[in-house]
Amino acid sequence: MNLILTILIDGLTYASWLFIVALGLTLVFGVLKILNVAHGSFYALGAYAAATLVGWFASLKLAPELSLVAMLLAAVSVAALVAPLCERGLLRVFYGRDEVLLVLVTFALFLIMEDATKLIWGVNPLYVSEPYMLFGTVDFGPQSYVGYDFMLVAVAATVGYVVWWGLNRTRMGKIVLAVIHSEEVASSMGVNVSRIYTLAFATGIFLASLGGALTAPMISVQPGVSVAVVIVSFAVVIIGGLGSIPGAAIGALIVGIARSAAVHIWPVAELFSIYVVMAIVLMFRPEGLFQRIQARKI
After folding, report:
1. Which secondary structure element, helix H or strand E, spans residue 167, and what is its range?
2. For residues 100 and 111, what is the distance between their CA atoms, to the nearest angstrom?
3. N or C: fewer beta carbons within 10 Å in the chain?
4. pTM (2 decimals)?
């Protein structure tokens, strides 16, 4: 019983930050129709920026609680600085081209940003533990868990609800959905489609960098963290269905529990378990669990 509880809690914790990252990936695909291979690099930028800002706040002897503000500022800064540069300066040139070309462009961007992080932060790992200790521990029977993990679950649920509410209950969200269904019709009705593209891409980058910022206290931030994240994020959106918010949530939960079960029962099959689940889903639902073949929806 204790093993099952441990698997569920660890899987939920892993799924929470992964959902935030995958949500940004599926949002960008839903609006721009781009499989953004560079998404993991934005996650890494958020992690590096958060580690830098939290360390700076600590050096100023500020209250430890402000480290959470530093993490949020890091994610916002990455989105504000990188989104216009990437979307307006690079991707906009290739809109309307073959989708394979766009994948290659984002892969090239991924390689460039990998080297850029090494030039800026070096190759030595960064550690930031201040936020991780703020929430103490939580006891479940004989097991003790770090409170930060449960805060992460709450943040993921809040982010998911805010994105859903923004898309389905606001005027701007309705405009975004109109662009998703038909950019030509939306443009003919006076919608500034290029502005919506920039907004959606910036939101996707913010979600990726927020996921990186939130996981920075839990890992050693070092070169290569983006590679594993983008692979697992693609697994999540493929399982759930490209462009689906509920699919991203369910896909992250499935991947999180599958990975957690493998880690506790058969550790050598950690990554293998994720791909097995993805293969099984694709065998019976090639379009994903929450996606119909004839429609792309958020």
Report:
1. helix 147-169
2. 17
3. N
4. 0.93
